User: Fold these one by one.
Assistant:
Number 1:
Amino acid sequence: MDDHAHALPVFFYWLDLLALAALAASGALAAARKNMDIGGFVLVGIVAAIGGGTLRDVLLGYPVAWTRQPEYLVICLVVTVAVYVATPHVDRRETWLLWADALGMGLYAAIGADKALAADASPLVAVSTGVIAAAGGGIIRDVLCNDIPVILHKEIYATVAAAGAVLYIGLHDIGGLDYETSLIIAVTATFALRAVAIIYSLSLPFYRLRPG
Amino acid sequence: MDDHAHALPVFFYWLDLLALAALAASGALAAARKNMDIGGFVLVGIVAAIGGGTLRDVLLGYPVAWTRQPEYLVICLVVTVAVYVATPHVDRRETWLLWADALGMGLYAAIGADKALAADASPLVAVSTGVIAAAGGGIIRDVLCNDIPVILHKEIYATVAAAGAVLYIGLHDIGGLDYETSLIIAVTATFALRAVAIIYSLSLPFYRLRPG
Amino acid sequence: MDDHAHALPVFFYWLDLLALAALAASGALAAARKNMDIGGFVLVGIVAAIGGGTLRDVLLGYPVAWTRQPEYLVICLVVTVAVYVATPHVDRRETWLLWADALGMGLYAAIGADKALAADASPLVAVSTGVIAAAGGGIIRDVLCNDIPVILHKEIYATVAAAGAVLYIGLHDIGGLDYETSLIIAVTATFALRAVAIIYSLSLPFYRLRPG
């Protein structure tokens, strides 16, 4: 994030890597569901983890973050290989993944919005960029696995990401709060909202799928 | 289009927004066919509407248009939410959509070609860029909905877009006609060609699909 | 490749065009399997041929190669139309395609790695860029055809591309060998490895696909 208007505070840097690992694991588990081999695990895991940030950077005209920060790829490699080795022993609907992802989603949404505003985008564009950064990796993951992207069936995901981006913009750019405090509040609130959504979603899987 | 070699005349600016609305509606109707929720409607609608222009700008190295023009997103939001609310009362094969899309296709093809030439691309690259701008949004829409892109089964779409781009280049860059006149002629001719194609296509849906 | 750190030697320029033609043909054959029309042949063929290089250039911030080199599109057009005309007489699992593709894969992997290093990327990023350049076109081709990308089931493809990129980096950037010699050795070694992989793969098609 060396091109970011704001340097990411140390705590959030580690949160960023945790979110990355959760997304990489989600990609590897998707590869497991499709019975791919190690190459598929690594590729889908990497794409799931860095896809959203890549779209964000390309759309805004920033250099693509992972091409400057090799530790991103190292984490993806380690996580996806670990999942491959552990797959037979892993529940494919790992709950901890949902929670790590929920933390990361709020962070990606807020960082995406911040990067957009730093590139002189309007608030609505910034919210969209936040949603793309938070949801883009999962969308590409599902497209590669030949599924309809799961978030397109769960409004609560994109909507929560949008709410997080709106909250961050409100706190930092309208309210005048400092970067770190705005980030903490936005990420915490998004996480809480998503926690409700997870519990809600788990009880309503694909409820809306009905014949056309 | 502030980075465009040619400023878009006022009449075409409104035509551009109409085409955008038609594409957003096509995305929302695709979401309806897949029984998505409001989040899916908005996301697929936005991607269908701005996908082609985004590809065009990224490929040519322009700043991405919609990140500079927030009214694009506003229109997508309004249209997709309106379709969501109206869905039970809407015929999913709305004919007016085809006609609005036909108008927009010619415009996107010509603008795409013009932007490519302004970036010093060769005429063949300019025609390809025009086709990508005209067809890219629909292709991404169908990929997200886990369908084979519909235009890959209907030659008449991509071919008409290519013809429109060729005509524009011929009139403006070879024939020396001014920008606005070239645009009017190219868009009108593309619309007429597509009108024939629509009537033809409607009578031959998926005719070419036969066992391999 | 005018923005490339290294100008491509003449021999490799022709190899590059051969690889491009092989990829375009693979796209056209994929279109044939899905019973597309001439428009689908051309579009899927072009995307298969230039997709990997486009991703590479966009990720690294280079101008997109095919927008500067119109001969790329000419070759794609000629090849895809030729396949369309010849389709009924062509075995859809043409072996020569696999061999031409194997030559091209090594070249794309090495060039992708070289371009990344020239953009000051780390070796791990360079290897990833090489894999993306070598495999990206085929992945997009399969996504457009609504298939799970074939290389995600055949580790041996992405792994061979990665090995080729590693070898090139080792020879040129660590070993200090000159560009042309490094390229010849890396491409030859990748081809040999892939030749083994092809024979191995052909005897194990989709063997790993088993119920979850």
Number 2:
Amino acid sequence: MYKNFSFNILQQSKNLKTNERLGKIVTPHGEIQTPAFIFCGTKASVKGISPYQLKETNTQIILSNTYHLFSYPGSAYIKARGGLHKFSGWNGPMFTDSGGFQIFSLGHGSVADEIKGRRSGISTLAKIDEEGATFKSYWDGSVQLLTPEKSIEVQHELGADLIVSFDECTPYHIDKKYTEKSMERSHRWEKRSLNEFIKRNNGTQALYGIVQGGIYPDFRKRSAEFVSSHPFFATAIGGTLGSTKEQMYEVVEMAMNGLDIRRPIHLLGIGGISDIFRGVKLGIDTFDCVHPTRIARHGGALVKAAYRDHNLREHINLKKAEYRNDDNPIEIDCDCPTCAIFSRAYLHYLLKAKELLALQAIAIHNIRFMNKLMEEIRRGIADGNLTEVESKWC
Amino acid sequence: MYKNFSFNILQQSKNLKTNERLGKIVTPHGEIQTPAFIFCGTKASVKGISPYQLKETNTQIILSNTYHLFSYPGSAYIKARGGLHKFSGWNGPMFTDSGGFQIFSLGHGSVADEIKGRRSGISTLAKIDEEGATFKSYWDGSVQLLTPEKSIEVQHELGADLIVSFDECTPYHIDKKYTEKSMERSHRWEKRSLNEFIKRNNGTQALYGIVQGGIYPDFRKRSAEFVSSHPFFATAIGGTLGSTKEQMYEVVEMAMNGLDIRRPIHLLGIGGISDIFRGVKLGIDTFDCVHPTRIARHGGALVKAAYRDHNLREHINLKKAEYRNDDNPIEIDCDCPTCAIFSRAYLHYLLKAKELLALQAIAIHNIRFMNKLMEEIRRGIADGNLTEVESKWC
């Protein structure tokens, strides 16, 4: 079923207490060395950054959001343009999500923040039933129905290499009873997604199953076993990961329990540096998050431990007055094009003067930062010194 | 006085009726092959475009506006950061204007449009007298006085290679009497600029004189003779160029009359394709204009004659519905990074979806377009077939 795809585990952890691993996902558009970070190109474009710049900073894979592209310009349109790769000019591996996350997180209102970050777009969830989810499009207000079959059809038309089953994404505040009911329905939706995928499969795509089950160990285990017992290419861990960092790691650990670890494992929506180290040690292969590119648009530049102010956040805010006369690059040991020629003072000035270049320059640093982080994590796994790598980055 | 600078005329027109020429301006930051186009990086940044992207598209020289940088962040600040080159990361030749144009065009109100395009920033001219021009800063409303000495001091602190004498820039609707009075004062200001330049000269900069005189042949000639009889490195043609295209060429021709043609000649604020051909044939060496990068931010992509819709404008507006399904690049024979991977349809979509990448992608095309235009003009002069080159581009 996945003849043009493969996942090879190149090396397992040398440490008995942790499960980090080196791997390689092969897709028709190239290989992904794992652990890897997937950058968000929500609307078929990583905001303000060209595919050339993504390549120059060693980006392996980007994702687009089905929800946004379904709303505008539509998947039939993108198919007519030759699919996402040709349309967007990115010829490397691509990933699309199922479209469910945006609908449900918007539908559940402000609790979207509890799951994984702020809202994008403004939409309204009208109804969830066995068939699927009815919502009002953020783009034009039209009423749309997204079903498992429709999600797979749309993702098939978009044409990313790695695509995801349709599920309901529940937030933290949902009770145990609803969580179970929703999880069971998600499993039925995932089976329908798989059936639709098989019907349409032409060898260009591979399908992820999603583990749901909220913060409940028994549900997470049941969901992991469901996904592992069906012929998905890979697994994504979705749904709420709890309300605290510690709970997040517990939930991920629960979800790993019962998973087929011969498949690639993706952790949806997580992109903090320390979170990535924790995830990698639990056996996660890929991560995605809007964080690195989103904070760039607000002046946030990711920095390693040595460069943090007050050592609290994983980034510095270049809008702050303290950078006004700072002639250093964001990071003196960074090999990105931004750190090669721009000072913090210049970036601070560009932000104050509302010059567009600031957004591009900081985003490029953050993208290179994340790719370099993943490169060093992979080297740390190979060399058996991941903890030393972590102490440099966290 | 200009020991680190030189201008070599490499070839004169082979055609008796026209005065185009090939040249080379040498500056401490590199050479400029002329005829050349100077791109606007108003606030020490070409909007949304990095110095790498400027180099990749064969950009030779950029300019920054003294008025904007004087208002914010201030030239003393930029000097403390190591000057404009170091601060902005652009290590090639740079040009600054005197700051006068913005003050006077804003001061003369809506007639700014008559001179050379729309306003940038919002300021108020309070007073012009022999000393200089008093105005309210667009940045913080503070009252500032710009004099010839101050303009040179500011430009010295900014540190561009090529700098310009302070003059009054008069619009088209000003009468002959005021034009003469203003021109004579401009000449006195230019002498003061030159004196201040000589006092501060440390070999890193070269000074332009400016020809004024409005639309009056006798004044233009007098002004050209004034400039040519003083030890400026080069000459810029400023002030109003009339109210029609035809008048513009007449005024430029008048200004050329009496000029020392051994010096480089710059035509301020002109960047249309056919205007550049006309200017080149009159003997102009360099041009500058915000047009190529400004229209990009509104979806305007420069195109050669063969690609124009209805053959009226020198650009196409990619926001138009007719490009929605157009899978061609902006220009099929363009060697820019944008035309290599993006279709008109994708750029149209990015504009509609308000994705930042559109601005960068179209600006890169327009920058490469202008540089390629100037490359072909130079080849056309070398080969003696400028008219053939023109028929392809206009």
